[in-house]
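Our preliminary data section would be incomplete without showing what the modeling component actually yields. Below, a chain of 132 amino acids is followed by its predicted structure, encoded as tokens that our downstream tools consume directly.
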Amino acid sequence: VGSEVYDRKNRCWFFDLQGPFGQLPKTWILTVIDDATGYPGIRPLTSISDESIIASFQSILAAWGEQEFPARFRSDNGFGGKFEAWLRSEAKLRGRKLDYKTGAAENPTLTIVTLAIRQADYIAEQMGKKNI
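Predicted structure:
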């Protein structure tokens, strides 16, 4: 099995949801990593609806000032149908053919970010209980 390695920004974005974290209301975190640069996009979510995930992706695109829509998207788990339809329509608007794969191996940076978030959540919980 060959690996995907990208040498240019916006060739491939890996993304995932972490959570839920905390007490009510629960919070999830959308993490997006550009494979070539390792640049992260992190957005907290109070809902994991397609609409919320789409809004977060739009926010990341705007924050990064991206004129070029990524060529490829990878995630370990699939997202909802509305989200996938949005990805397809955005790619088409930008003259790209969407290459979106689920079940992809996690980007190592994404895994590290996830572990750091989980550890911070645990530490905050323990501090709240006065255990540390």
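The chain has a mean pLDDT of 81. The radius of gyration is 16 Å. Preliminary results of this kind motivate Aim 1 of the renewal.
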